[in-house]
Amino acid sequence: MNLKGQARAKAILERMQEAERIPSALLFYGPSGIGKTVAALDMAKGVLCLNSSPWGCGECPSCRHMNHITDLILKEEWDGLSVYSEEGSRKVFLYLMGDHPDFVFVPPHGASIKIDQVRAVREFSYSKPALSHRKVVIFDRADLMTREAANALLKVLEEPPAETHFILVTDTKEALPPTVLSRTHQVEFLPLDRKTFSEILGDAELYELSGGSVTKARALKERPEVLSMVEEFLSLEPVRVYEVAKKLDTMDTRGKDLFFSLLEEKVYEAFREGRIGYDDHEVIMQRILEIREGIPKGLRVDLALYSIYTLMEV
Ligand SMILES: [Zn+2]
Q1: Distance of CA 177 to CAs 37, 149, 182, Å?
Q2: Residue 181 lies in a domain
């Protein structure tokens, strides 16, 4: 497994694999964009490998299916993987599944992971493995589970299916109910230092701006226009702010979120450098947090941006 800067997590996981004592529920936690999801996918590959190779032999039919699905998941090419259930006229998104019959990946649907998703996973997890000796379910952004979904998952974890392993991945484990946390074996992932960050991306140019997140830095490299928009906005000139708001409104969810997460870093930088005071910093950060939570729910971002403009203007 190629997991840079996470020597401790890697060692813990390797020990479990080698001893063949993998807990039925694992929780990977730590800041976003530092390799937790990649580690979960690699771990799954190892657990499912037909040659019992700790991180997967890469050659057996199970590993070949896992290589394929991992690639698509990380590129977010989800169209061919999305599994839905039909309930009357309602189409409910459940999870992502490729050609491997014993593996599912559960990302949030819209703003949350919903109870329908957990119910579907429960059914999946109590059935017999079809290709491998075991099955794996990954919940990505597990902190976004609704309370009903978390309660349903708790029931499963209380009577863990013998052959299924769950891996929960989260940036904020505090958002999960303590009852769920206590049923998981927790593995901490640490923030990347500048050197490791630079080894992964080729340079450390975006280290501060991305808050050390490789995922965010990659998104920024792909969409440099978002950074220019943030800079335009920070000029606080009404006409330029208006143009940014208009452009932001037409962007996809990921673009919008990237914009506000960059704004967050810029506001923090201004605070560190003494350009804005403590109270203003707190109020603006709180507002940005609310906006980021509102984006997947269809919040009007142009109006939201003006509300920050008003706060910054004074
Ligand atoms: Zn294999």
Answers
A1: 21, 11, 9
A2: yes
